[in-house]
Amino acid sequence: MGNQIDRSCQECGTPVDQLPTLVEFEGQEIFLFDPVVCKDCLLSLCDSFSVRCENCGGSIPPYSQVGVLKAENGQKEFVHMNTTCSTVGSAFYGYLGKGKLHHFIEIEAC
Ligand SMILES: [Zn+2]
Ligand SMILES: [Zn+2]
Q: Which ligand is nearest to the CA of 10?
């Protein structure tokens, strides 16, 4: 039976034999190790849960790292976590999950 590993998609239960799951969404490559999600589900998650980058207007797919800006009305705004979009003053970052932050790390401004 070789090196069969028992992993299945968290969304639909389909066995996932290769990690990371790799999809291309709106020109961005997404590699996902955790959670285990199959290609089809990852694509539909991207469709449902990607958010708009406040800086460049592009989409930020779920399970990617984001910069977090606090908007005036107490809402959070997201930017790509790269040198172009992550502006100075975004002291917050996290990993985007399904429509909300997956991990949210708050760094004290000093
Ligand atoms: Zn699936
Ligand atoms: Zn951006």
A: 1
| pLDDT classification of 36: cutoffs 50, 70, 90 | very high
Question: How far does the centroid of ligand 1 lie from the alpha carbon of residue 91, in Å?
Answer: 34
- Which alpha helices (H) appear in 1-110, and where do they start and end? 39-49
| Phi-psi domain of 39 (left: phi exceeds 0; alpha: psi -120 through 50; beta: other) | alpha
List of residues 6+ apart from 71 with CB closer than 8 A: 77
- Which ligand is the nearest neighbour of the Cα of 64? 2
pLDDT given at position 110: 45
pTM over 0.85: no
94 confidence band (pLDDT: 50, 70, 90): confident
E-strand ranges in 14-56 read: 21-25, 28-32, 51-52
